[in-house]
Amino acid sequence: MLARSLPALLLLITTACGADEQPPLIVGEVALPLQRFELTPAEYAQVQRARMWALDECMTRFGIDLSLPAAKQARPVRSAALVGHLRDREPERHGYRGPVGYQDDLFTAAARGVTKAVEVPAPYVPVFDGTVEQYGGRLVPPDGCDGEVKRRLDAGAGHLRDSLGDKRVVPSSTFTLIEQEALARVERDDRYRAAQTRWSDCMDRAGYHYATTADAEGDPRWATSVSITAVEPERDVTAEEIATATADTRCRDEVRLPGTALRLHTEFQEKLIADRFTALVQAKQLLDAQLHNSALIGSG
């Protein structure tokens, strides 16, 4: 649970410090407006478990045994990462990677409760997506097992999916698009760019030379490509990465970069929410229906 509500946190930021002077953020205090339309991490995990159960049940009818990813409740790390808050990664010990499981939690949060993407071997794709009418002498459901799972989860609210046009089983495209557009606006904003310049100057004084925080975090000496279908193996973190991440965190706090980013993300998300309110309400209603229906799947 958040130590302060989002309105209280924003009030603290704007009244105590002014527009260009943000207080350091505390782990656990990062919340963004879009979250009020989404399920909680525990609720997303419940829906994804029902999704995997229903998908396995359908594919098994055709003699297909898929290796499906696990569903789990992710730690609340996504918003902090979005605004560039590094403290919850414990950079003095773990560098940019974070403690064991942190990167998996980032993926799980972005994927809304599932640890990896569903991977279907090529011979079984027609059953999964319904591009054949029969398989092994059995009728394939319309739009395949994927379509059947959507209909079971969406029961009573399928018209909302039609309105949204979201093809993801657990609908999140509306949230993702708003989040990405808000991020693009933040990165173009002069207030954010000025904070990045102050951060770069701070890093220069510490002996590290990067133009932006993304350059430091994405340094090829420690940045890795993450698979969406295989669990990423943990790796050793070098002393050089730890030293850089520690200096980076100190400089972000010194120039109040995460606080500035939080304020701007909040500002732009609220504007986009106002513009797309109907779609967000529909997405929330569909998710609520899926949460209700997920409790019924596999219970019999």
Task: Give me a quick take on this structure.
By secondary structure, this protein is an all-alpha fold.
Q: How does this structure look, described?
A:
This protein is mainly alpha-helical and 300 residues long. The chain has one domain. It has 14 helices and two strands. The protein has a two-stranded antiparallel ribbon. The N terminus is likely disordered.
Overall body shape: globular
Count the helices. How many? 14
Approximate strand percentage: under 5%
Provide the succession of SSEs: HHHHHHEEHHHHHHHH
Number of domains: 1
Mean pLDDT: 89
Helix amount, in percent?
40-55%
Q: How many angstroms does the end-to-end distance come to?
A: 33 Å
Structural class computed from helices and strand pairing: mainly alpha
Largest sheet: 2 strands, antiparallel
The number of distinct β-strands equals: 2
What integer value in Å does the Rg equal?
22 Å
Strand order of the largest sheet: 1-2
Which consecutive residue ranges, at least 5 long each, have pLDDT under 50? 1-23
Signal peptide: 1-19
Organism: Lentzea rhizosphaerae
Protein name: Lipoprotein
Keywords: Signal
Give the key terms.
300 residues, mainly alpha, two-stranded antiparallel ribbon, 14 helices, globular, disordered N terminus, Lipoprotein, signal
